[in-house]
Specification:
Catalyzes the formation of phosphoribosylamine from phosphoribosylpyrophosphate (PRPP) and glutamine. With 492 residues, this protein is an alpha+beta fold. It folds into two domains: 211 residues, Rossmann fold (3-Layer(aba) Sandwich), CATH 3.40.50.2020; 230 residues, Aminohydrolase, N-terminal nucleophile (Ntn) domain (Glutamine Phosphoribosylpyrophosphate, subunit 1, domain 1), CATH 3.60.20. 27% of the residues lie in helices and 25% in strands. It contains 18 helices and 25 strands. Strands 4-3-5-2-11-10-12 form a seven-stranded antiparallel sheet. A hairpin with a 2-residue loop joins strand 10 and strand 11. The longest helix has 15 residues. The chain is globular and about 70 Å long.
């Protein structure tokens, strides 16, 4: 079998690797969506939000922001970079008040610039308004064009701003009625946190595509994209926000309403496979345990005799452990991730650039040398990542490399908040499993079946796919997509 060299694989060409979002990730992984966090009724709302964002940092490393209300005015700060880079002690001291919403972002629609960093803050006839969201609004371009024809002036290229304009232009005097009217016009996957001077409102799309949970810390009410944010601050999980639901928290307590009836339940399956942290629970299902079950099911469906099992850090470790437990093949740390490279580093010399993948990932030679290795990964996107890692293992002396993927072939783009390449760039959209195996230089290749994935997750809601969105695998989108793939603005 040919052993392609890493220097045959195109590397980045700019002065900096990952300098902004225009450079292709050397690991060709799906980009995180966004993360939201909210607090009502705590004197240290900004500090809680800061720690909550730290826990959600994996969902977005491009920008971060916190907006706090003291009851009479907003105090907010947003910036490009990681949470620890955006917020200093001096900045945090100015974010005073008991109510806050916060956001970490990786752009899926809208340019990568500070103007698009969230929460977005607006002034309109009823007062101040701040919005943070996780997801993507499919029909935002059409709504935006219509609003601009009617005189609206947009300050950002983010699709989130569309909701603010719909609220501002509503004929309803009551803000909640205006919000409901605006939400009903949106198509897509979205989890909104909306802040006024005196309340927080949480809203989830009618299909429940994006995760959103509610918690409590003493008398304070919290919202977050994942439960790991509650664990970070010692808060208690209360429940998941339901599709089409509106939860209002103010001085009168918690009020539950609806802006739409629940449609086909379609929680994103990739949350369980890749995006969510292993210590998070989604719909009360632990992510680590679900991934272990994926690995076990993968072993049942795609067993291969080997000497060692290893996982691609970090999201595939749980599945690799499950595969090893099911087969009895020892699990070993065959691949090690360098956690101190950072998001941006100066381009090295030509010789080192040709080995660029090793700056973030290394094979443990003494573990894989002379061994038949099963390499577990969560997905294959373009195929470049798998090729690089397979070759790395071979160069470290692996006798055989068998690739097992804990998800079905990823053959369709996501329109609901995950940054994915076009269908033409997805290797599984045009190649058979055997053709992909050859392209990534593996001795064998097996993907987890869609049925096996659904069983491993363990959410067996009534309806299609047990209540999951698996459009990236089966092309069955829960909402109308129309010509969205042609209309997406500045998708990066």
């Amino acid at each position: 079998m040919p052993n392609e060299k890493l220097n045959d694989i195109p590397q980045w060409t700019g002065r900096f690797y990952n300098d902004g979002v225009q450079h292709e990730d050397m690991f060709d992984k799906l980009k995180e969506e966004c993360g939201v966090f909210g607090v009502y009724g705590h004197d240290e709302a900004a500090s809680l939000s800061y720690y909550g964002l730290h826990a959600l940092q994996h969902r977005g490393q491009e920008s971060a922001g916190i907006c706090v209300s003291d009851g009479s005015e907003f105090h907010y700060h947003r910036g490009m970079g990681l949470v620890k880079e955006v917020f200093t002690n001096d900045i945090m001291q100015n974010l005073t008040g008991p109510v806050a919403i916060a956001h970490v972002r990786y752009s899926t629609a809208g340019e990568s610039r500070v103007a698009n960093a969230q929460p977005l803050v607006f002034k309109y006839r009823e007062g101040d308004l701040a919005i943070a969201t996780n997801g993507n609004i499919l029909n935002a371009p059409e709504i935006r064009k219509e609003l601009e024809r009617e005189g609206s002036i947009f300050q950002t290229t983010s699709d989130t701003e569309v909701l603010a304009h719909l609220i501002a232009r509503s004929r309803h005097e009551d803000m909640l009625q205006a919000l409901k009217e605006g939400l009903k016009q949106l198509v897509g996957g979205f989890a909104f946190l909306i802040l006024t001077k005196e309340r927080i409102i949480a809203a989830l799309d009618p299909h429940g595509l994006r995760p959103l949970v509610m918690g409590k810390l003493g008398d304070a009410v919290l919202f977050a994209s994942e439960t790991c944010a509650f664990d970070m601050i010692g808060a208690e999980y209360v429940r998941d926000v339901q599709p089409g639901e509106l939860i209002i928290v103010d001085k009168n307590g918690i009020r539950e309403e609806r802006f739409a009836q629940q449609q086909r339940k379609a929680l994103c399956a990739m949350e369980y496979i890749y995006f969510a942290r292993p210590d998070s629970d989604i719909d009360q299902i632990n992510i680590h345990l679900a991934r272990k079950r994926m690995g076990r099911q993968l072993a049942i469906e795609g067993f291969v005799d080997a000497d060692v099992v290893t996982g691609v850090p970090d999201s595939s470790i749980s599945a690799a452990i499950g595969y090893a437990e099911q087969t009895g093949i020892p699990y070993e740390l065959g691949l090690v991730k360098n956690r101190y490279v950072g998001r941006t580093f100066i381009q090295p010399s030509q010789a080192l650039r040709e080995q660029g993948v090793k700056m973030k990932l290394s094979a443990v030679r003494k573990v894989v040398e002379g061994k038949r290795v099963v390499m577990i990964d969560d997905s294959i996107v373009r195929g470049t990542t798998s090729l690089r890692i397979v070759n790395m293992l071979r160069e470290a002396g692996a006798k055989e490399v068998h690739v097992r993927i804990s998800s079905p072939p990823f053959s369709n783009p996501c329109f609901y908040g995950i940054d994915t390449p076009s269908r033409e760039e997805l290797i599984a959209s045009a190649k058979t499993v055997e053709e992909i195996r050859k392209a990534i230089n593996a001795d064998s290749l097996h993907f987890l079946s869609k049925e096996g994935l659904q069983e491993a997750i363990g959410r067996m809601d009534e309806g299609i796919n047990g209540g999951h969105c698996m459009a990236c695998f089966d092309n069955d989108y829960p909402t109308k997509t129309g010509d969205f793939s042609k209309q997406m603005i500045s998708r990066v």
